[in-house]
Amino acid sequence: MSAGTVLVTGGARGIGRAIAERLAATGWDVVATYLTGRDEAEHLARTHDVQIRQIDLANRAETLAFAKQICQEFPLSALVNNAGILEKETFDSMTLDAWDRILEVNVTAPLILAQTIGPGMPAGGSIVNLASIDAFVGSYRGIAYPASKAALLSLTRSLANVLGPRGVRVNAVTPGWIDSGILPGSYAAANITPPRP
Fold first, then answer.
1. Count: domains in the chain
2. What residue numbers bound the domain in which 185 lies?
3. pTM of the model
4. 145: annotated active-site residue
5. Which residues, listed in sequence order, are joined to residue 130 by a DSSP beta bridge?
6. Is residue 48 part of a domain?
7. 9-60 residue pLDDT tens
8. 3-class secondary structure, 170
9. Are 15 and 180 in contact (CB under 8 A)?
10. Which position among 34, 140, 145, 187 bears the catalytic label?
11. Are 148 and 106 in contact (CB under 8 A)?
12. Counting Cβ atoms within 10 Å, is residue 2 exposed (0-12), middle (13-18) or buried (19+)?
């Protein structure tokens, strides 16, 4: 018997893939989104019976349409807002376009999905937002990313206040540095230490 249906954003690689695989292995019907990494997403679909959807969460219109469509397709009882982007730059080279793009994916998209999906979840439903330790310590290289994750923590608290009385739990987790593929290349392959905040 299925544990329910869960949407995992950014499920093709890294932390999102591990989450999708674990949920599928423990009886959940998993729908996972991806933007790039089609081969990885299709492999996940084949090996773990996960349904996949391609979406650009930096495109607000696309996110809004997807959120509405996914509610029509599935009776979702859980949501994992894992998708995120990180762009490393110096303070002097940071652009507002990058700021807007990072905030859109890391904060606004989780809000849109929670606002659309959350009210329809059954009692006992759950939303989990993937934040970061950078939310607490900031960064020397990449101001937008830690700011977005701090905002996501605040958003999580507000969503918990609103959805909690309806029986939907909202929580966040704050991983430290993990070579999850969010940055181009691989720290392990390059034999270097991940950058510190």
1. 1
2. 4-190
3. 0.89
4. yes
5. 173
6. yes
7. 999 999 999 999 999 999 999 999 999 999 999 999 999 999 999 999 999 9
8. strand
9. yes
10. 145
11. yes
12. exposed
